[in-house]
Fold this sequence. Notes:
It contains nine helices and ten strands. The chain is of the alpha/beta class. The strands form two sheets. A six-stranded mixed beta sheet has the order 6-7-8-3-9-10, sandwiched between helices. It has a four-stranded antiparallel beta sheet with strand order 2-1-4-5, covered by helices on one side. Helix 6 (171-186) links the parallel strand 7 and strand 8. The mean pLDDT is 93. Adenosine-5'-triphosphate binds next to strand 2 and helix 1. Residues 5-238 form the ABC transporter domain.
Amino acid sequence: MSKILKLEGLSRAFGAVKVADQLNYELSQGEALGVIGPNGAGKTSMFNLITGTLAADSGKVHFDGRDVTAQSAAARSRMGIARSFQVPQPFTHMTVFENAMIAATQAAGLSGRAAETLCLDVLEQTGLMDKANTPAGSLTLLNRKRLEMTRALCAKPKLLLLDEIAGGLTEAECHSLVQTIKDVHATGVSIIWIEHVVHALLAVVSRLVVIDFGRKIAEGDPREVMDSREVKEIYLGIDADA
Length: 242
Ligand SMILES: Nc1ncnc2c1ncn2[C@@H]1O[C@H](COP(=O)(O)OP(=O)(O)OP(=O)(O)O)[C@@H](O)[C@H]1O
């Protein structure tokens, strides 16, 4: 199967802190990959390196068959990489529809009727249609998370990066968001999802990568990875060999 994303020896440090340390992994077209790791492990920094808002010290990012390491964040966005932010960042004084339109016009490069049609389709998909005229600043947390996904999808991504989108939600809200992510994935969009709410992640992804101190320390079948010595050591603080 062809690869949508390939990270090759990707490294970045802030002083003595290595946020990415020789990261290597690939994502197949249409695959959903989960990423877990302790706080400060470098997960969000990895998204910043993929989207191009953070420059690598060394290594390469290949996207859709091209080496994009030297490309700007704007160029990578036009090529089809979109993300949601851990802390939702809507234009709070604008409506949900206006927020969606900004992504459709600026990131997807659409205008007029084509942009409006895309936004309406995405709002239907993300369950925000009845909030289209609501100011983004008055949305509930669940709907702010839905708006994050809406804005990313209005960029018409081939690769969707989700950063802790389930955090802070109730069980029922989380369940409903998982269903929406499954629906998006079913349309063929490739997904990398960083998430601490592991049961939500495992309902969607078919492979898991574990990051600690910027390094990939485990990768594979989600349930086998969750059962692995590396994950138990990190999350339970035990020496599994003892
Ligand atoms: N611009 C920066 N300058 C200096 N240090 C930074 C910068 N960005 C991130 N860091 C540091 O790099 C480390 C990794 O941060 P990052 O946000 O990537 O981790 P994370 O795995 O996403 O954490 P969390 O699960 O808490 O969101 C942290 O110690 C953080 O303080």
